[in-house]
Each structure stands twice: as structure tokens, then as C-alpha cells.
């Protein structure tokens, strides 16, 4: 009951984190679940063993009518052949092929933000979901798809789905049948958001672009072709649609949620913006963004400060049990960890952990390598996010584009309470929006 209460209020990760200093770096947070915050112990459970994931938690992430995709298969043997295509499609070499498309999408995004000339606020969460959808689409299924007609609905669908995950983890199954047809229009939309997400991707699969041999392999192509090793996956239309729906969700939400918090912190700390702007002036275009030290620090700090995934992963202990930190964990118990606590529980390496401070990543002291080791925003082990490289690639490009073009300011309606982190399929702002002012730099300089 305790864990459901914490999840309902979006506080499980921070509450569990607060227990660690009191009870040690292994805490039992449910009758069948222990939170482990020791890197070596986590490596023993998550990296060195091929353990299955906890089925109840991950199946809250199903799409459509209870349809599975890579993340929701507890069995590693089922997930592995579905993860590999994402990793291949998201290599830096392949992403560079799509770079021009990313820049074209970003130009539309920046024009939208500049349309108000800094006179009114923009919900950056909404805008980022549209941009990351456009970017992820080419990597997932190629450049020949027209997704414009799906744009308007997508941010709201995703936002409602994120909070639906919380409902699925907390409420009994029977209540969803009632909510689906109940009197509340709001509840009906939230419960059906999973179906809407699936329907969008099913339609896109039906319109899948004609193969282009000049393009790098897309996720869709790699999923549906015979692999070099092992038997091919025999997909039904429903299964591949669910897979693609889940992949587009993962490709958009991790990036847009983290960037929203980063831009909010930029608005609070203009000195960070200015330092980053000056660094961006040292290069032409976007071809050398991966060489910029302060840009890298700003992204790392955003991923540390508000990790895109809350409880980073859970594993079910197999036959024979496992010994972690000197304690025997019996079969069937769930071992979980979270990126949030890896850094928050090391004040010697991350002082003032509740403060967004990119400069901490510029220190080249004796703690440098350990700080890097403890940053695991995309998970650890064999089930870590396969698209993490694409998330970083997009973050560099999007941050550079905005900071070069605008000075970011807080909107009057944006308060610390509204931006309090809420754990809903990862960390989101309390009301799933972030209103900011984007003042064109040429206008700002003439004030």
C-alpha cells in the first residue's frame, strides 16, 4: 500500500532516496522489492547476470489493447532481438546521415518559438514532443512518411499516457473497464491514450515509405528483415505496430522531458546560458557540437538532475538466489535501482545535488572518473535504453539551436510548484508543461 501511495503522488523515487541515508544503501521498499544503490552490487545483478525484468511494473507500459513491445517483455531472450535494431539504427554514423533532416525539423521548431518575438510564453514540453517526434520518425521508419496530420494530437496523447502508467501501477485492473466508458471525459481520454498512441503508429506502418537503398537501415527495416544470427521475428501487423508505438514513445519522451527541465534551469540561471552561448560562438554550424565541453556538461547535469527514467530498472532474482552487499536475496525477489540516487547519495562527489550546476562536470580532480561512472540516466546492464545515443545527439542539436537563437526567461505563470518533478513514466513537471519566454537574441540586445 505504501508503494502505491508514493506512486500515486509521483514521489516514489525521491521518498525511496530519502530512506537510503537512514537505512543504508540497500532498502526494502516493498514486501518483494529491494532498492540497491551500490554500483558494484548493481553491476553484479544487472550486468553479470541475465535476469528477467519485473513483469508487473514494465507491463504498465503496454500500448494499445494490452499489446507488448520491447520494454514490456520480462524475458531477456524476447527483448534482445528487439533491442538490437534500435542500437544499430541509432549509431552516430547513421544519425549523421539524418542530420540534415534533424536540422530542417529544428528550423520549423525555432520558427515556431520566434513567432511571438518573445512577447508571449511557449509550452516547451509541447514543442519538444513535436520536434522529437519528427526526428525519431526518420530513424524509425525513413524519410518518406508524411506525419504532419498526426502532429496536433501527439503531445496530449503522450502526456496522458505517461500518467496512465501511474494509474496502471496503482489502481485495480477492473476499474479501467469502467473508466473507459465512465462519465468523466477526462478519465476516458486518459485510459484510451494508450489506444490512440497505438493507432497513430499502426496508421504509419500502413503508410510505410518505400525502401530507399541509399538510406541507412531504419528500426522498422531492421526489425522486419532476417537477422544475421538467429531466426527472424515473425511479426503480425498488431505486434509490429505496438513495437513501433512503444519505440516512438521512448524516442520522444526521454529527450523532451529532460530538455524541458534543462531549459527551465537555463531560465533560472542566465549565467549558464551566456557561458554556453559564448562556447557555441567558437564553432560554425552543428558539425562539431560533440567537441564542446560546456555543452556536454550542461547535458550531463540535466540527466543527473532530472533523469529521464525514474526507477532505472528492476530484475527478478532467479533460482538459487543472489548475494548482494553481504545479504542473501531469495528467488523471486525484485532488485531495483535508480539513477537519481547514484549521484544524490554521494555528496562528496555531488555537493548541493538539488542544484543544477553544470560546472561540476568540468572538474578534473580525483573524483572525475567516479562521477562519470555514477551517471547512468539510461539504465544499467543488458536492458539499458538502446536509444540513449540518439537522445544525446538530439539534445546537443536542440540546445545549440535554442541558445544561439534566444535568451530564455521564466514566464510569469511558471512557478517552482508547477515545475516540481512528478514521477510518471519517468520525471515530468507536475502539470506536464513548462511555459517559458524565448526572446530572440537580436531583440534582447536592443532592450
From TrEMBL:
Pathway connected to this protein: Secondary metabolite biosynthesis
GO BP annotation list: secondary metabolite biosynthetic process
Entry keyword Cytoplasm: no
Domain of life where this protein originates: Eukaryota
Keywords, alphabetical: Heme, Iron, Metal-binding, Monooxygenase, Oxidoreductase
The keyword Membrane is annotated on this UniProt entry: no
GO molecular function list: heme binding; iron ion binding; monooxygenase activity; oxidoreductase activity, acting on paired donors, with incorporation or reduction of molecular oxygen
Known cofactor(s): heme
UniProt-annotated binding residues for heme: 385
InterPro entries according to UniProt: Cyt_P450 (IPR001128), Cyt_P450_CS (IPR017972), Cyt_P450_E_grp-I (IPR002401), Cyt_P450_sf (IPR036396), Cytochrome_P450_monoxygenase (IPR050121)
Family annotation (PROSITE patterns): CYTOCHROME_P450
Family, similarity comment: Belongs to the cytochrome P450 family.
Protein name, per record: Cytochrome P450
Protein's organism: Dendrothele bispora (strain CBS 962.96)
Lineage: Eukaryota, Fungi, Dikarya, Basidiomycota, Agaricomycotina
Amino acid at each position: 500500500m505504501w508503494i502505491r501511495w508514493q506512486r500515486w503522488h509521483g514521489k516514489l523515487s525521491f521518498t525511496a532516496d530519502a530512506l537510503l541515508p537512514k537505512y543504508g544503501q540497500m532498502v526494502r521498499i516493498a514486501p518483494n522489492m529491494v532498492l540497491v544503490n551500490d554500483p558494484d552490487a548493481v553491476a553484479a545483478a544487472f550486468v553479470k547476470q541475465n535476469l528477467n525484468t519485473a513483469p508487473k511494473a514494465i507491463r504498465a507500459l503496454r500500448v494499445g489493447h494490452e499489446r507488448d513491445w520491447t520494454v514490456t517483455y520480462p524475458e531477456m531472450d524476447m527483448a534482445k532481438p528487439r533491442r538490437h535494431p534500435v542500437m544499430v539504427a541509432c549509431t552516430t554514423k547513421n544519425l549523421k546521415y539524418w542530420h540534415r533532416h534533424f536540422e530542417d525539423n529544428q528550423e520549423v521548431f525555432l520558427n515556431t518559438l520566434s513567432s511571438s518575438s518573445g512577447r508571449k510564453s511557449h509550452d516547451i514540453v509541447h514543442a519538444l514532443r513535436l520536434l522529437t517526434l519528427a526526428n525519431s520518425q526518420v530513424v524509425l521508419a525513413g524519410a518518406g512518411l508524411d506525419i504532419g496530420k498526426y502532429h496536433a494530437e501527439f503531445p496530449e496523447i503522450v502526456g496522458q499516457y505517461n500518467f496512465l502508467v501511474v494509474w496502471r501501477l496503482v489502481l485495480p485492473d477492473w476499474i479501467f473497464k469502467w473508466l473507459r466508458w465512465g462519465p468523466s471525459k477526462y478519465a476516458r481520454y486518459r485510459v484510451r491514450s494508450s489506444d490512440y498512441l497505438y493507432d497513430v503508429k499502426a496508421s504509419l506502418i500502413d503508410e510505410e515509405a518505400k525502401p530507399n537503398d541509399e538510406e541507412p537501415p531504419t528500426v522498422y527495416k531492421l526489425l522486419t528483415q532476417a537477422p544475421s544470427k538467429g531466426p527472424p521475428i515473425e511479426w503480425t501487423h498488431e505486434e509490429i505496430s505496438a513495437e513501433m508505438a512503444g519505440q516512438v514513445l521512448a524516442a520522444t519522451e526521454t529527450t523532451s522531458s529532460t530538455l524541458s527541465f534543462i531549459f527551465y534551469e537555463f531560465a533560472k540561471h542566465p549565467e549558464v546560458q551566456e557561458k554556453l552561448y559564448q562556447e557555441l560562438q567558437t564553432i560554425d554550424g552543428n558539425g562539431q557540437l560533440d567537441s564542446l565541453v560546456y555543452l556536454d556538461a550542461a547535458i550531463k547535469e540535466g540527466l543527473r538532475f532530472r533523469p529521464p527514467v525514474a526507477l532505472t530498472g528492476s530484475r527478478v532474482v532467479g533460482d538459487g538466489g543472489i548475494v548482494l552487499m553481504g545479504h542473501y536475496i531469495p528467488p523471486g525477489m525484485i532488485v531495483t535501482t535508480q539513477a537519481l540516487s547514484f549521484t544524490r547519495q554521494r555528496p562528496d562527489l555531488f555537493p548541493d545535488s538539488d542544484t543544477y550546476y553544470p560546472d561540476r562536470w568540468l572538474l578534473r580532480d580525483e573524483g572525475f572518473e567516479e562521477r562519470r561512472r555514477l551517471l547512468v540516466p539510461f539504465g544499467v546492464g543488458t536492458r539499458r535504453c538502446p536509444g540513449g545515443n540518439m537522445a544525446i545527439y538530439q539534445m546537443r542539436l536542440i540546445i545549440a539551436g535554442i541558445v544561439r537563437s534566444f535568451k530564455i526567461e521564466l514566464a510569469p505563470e511558471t512557478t517552482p510548484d508547477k515545475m516540481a518533478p512528478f514521477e510518471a513514466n519517468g520525471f515530468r513537471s507536475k502539470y506536464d508543461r513548462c511555459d517559458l519566454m524565448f526572446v530572440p537574441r537580436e531583440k534582447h540586445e536592443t532592450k
